[in-house]
Amino acid sequence: MADTDLGTGRDEVQFRFREDEPSDSAQVTVDAFLAQADASAVRIEPGDDARELLPHLARIKLIEMNFPVFGDGRGYSSARLLREHGYTGELRAVGDILIDQIAYMRRCGFDAFAPEKALDEADAEAAFARWENVYQPTVDGREPIWKLRHG
What we know:
- The chain is an alpha/beta fold.
- It has one domain (about 15-150): Rossmann fold (3-Layer(aba) Sandwich), CATH 3.40.50.
- It is built from five helices and six strands; from the N terminus they run ββαββαβαβαα.
- It has helices at about 30-35, 75-85, 100-110, 120-130, 145-150; strands at about 15, 30, 40-45, 60-65, 90-95, 110-115.
- Strand 2, helix 1 (about 30-35) and strand 3 form a beta-alpha-beta unit.
- It starts with 14 loop residues before the first strand and ends with a helix.
């Protein structure tokens, strides 16, 4: 499950759910990304509008979503928005990520995690596998239980 020590210069990737090679492109701010024609990695901070990236999704290999404090949930909405609009590149959660959040982040579309404090791998495995059935449709491809029951 986990690729370790991939190193982004700020945070280490602890969990990655992708088969492709990790991007080694430097992440730039949303404003800097929009001003450049050749940037392929961007870091979204709370308060940035992820919708500004929608016309450019095809050229983005990596989007880091910063969670500076665990209570700031704006990144969940941004992740889902990006996935629903067809973003297929790496979507990495970075920052103050807690074990009880990672399963929900995964459901919203995150496929890599770089917490500022390492998470216990056994606890993370348990969190990712905790619920066999889900109730809400999201972008992780899992069918909600009501759809399984009623087609």
